[in-house]
Amino acid sequence: MSLIICPGIHEPNLTESFLAGLRSLPTNQKPENILIFPTQDYPAYSSGDILQFLRQNHSLSVPIAFISFSAGVVGAIAAAWGWQLLGGQITAFIALDGWGVPLIGNFPIHRLSHDYFTHWSSALLGSGEDSFYAAPSVEHLELWRQPQIVSGWWIHSLNGKTEQKTRITAAQFLTILLERYHS
């Protein structure tokens, strides 16, 4: 499995910090290939540019998971649909603070939010599967900058009707998802 990181509109060092936070946790599965969409060169919300970046840097035959943040969620969800239309396999789509972005697809979708209000209101536009929200809430950029120290609730969907909550960090939640979808 490969991983495409679609950052938002912010300094590139925040994405480096995000990846360092993920790498700090023990995991049995590591993506073979991590691609970072260069938002310093293209708009974070541009699905066409993300799709072109994938076409130039990734093989359709290798499954891919998306991790996107903020404005990057806008471009990434449409690029995921486009990649799938080209014949690519999407193993998972993970959106961090994709507030106001409808998330619909025939692949697993997960949301992480910096506070409960964003979690609740984003779910109105497609909640996806298991999700996470920070509690106590943190600043929007903090969720991306240091996922390893952002504590909150992992919301498990049980049989589609009931929910269970587990206390966890955002980085631990992401690691669980990456291990789940590693192929």
Instruction: Report the helical percentage.
Output: 25-40%
Number of helices: 6
Number of strands: 8
Mean pLDDT: 90
Architecture, CATH level 2? 3-Layer(aba) Sandwich
> What is the total number of structural domains?
1
The parts where pLDDT drops under 50 for at least 5 residues are none
CATH topology, by name, is: Rossmann fold
Order of helix and strand elements from N to C terminus: EHEHEHEEHEHEEH
Derived structural class: alpha/beta
Q: How many angstroms does the end-to-end distance come to? A: 6 Å
Share of β-strand residues = 25-35%
Radius of gyration: 15 Å
CATH class: Alpha Beta
What is the molecular shape? Answer: globular
CATH homologous superfamily placement: Alpha/Beta hydrolase fold, catalytic domain
Quaternary assembly: single chain
Strands side by side in the biggest sheet: 2-1-3-4-5-6-7-8
Largest sheet report? 8 strands, mixed
Keywords: Membrane, Transmembrane, Transmembrane helix
Protein name: Alpha/beta hydrolase
Transmembrane segments: 60-83, 89-109
What does this structure look like?
- By secondary structure, the protein is an alpha/beta fold.
- It has one domain (2-181): Rossmann fold (3-Layer(aba) Sandwich).
- The protein is 35% helix and 26% strand.
- The protein has 6 helices and 8 strands; from the N terminus they run E-H-E-H-E-H-E-E-H-E-H-E-E-H.
- Helix 2 (47-57) crosses helix 3.
- The longest helix is centred in the middle third of the chain and has 15 residues, at 71-85.
- It starts with a strand and ends with a helix.
- The mean pLDDT is 90.
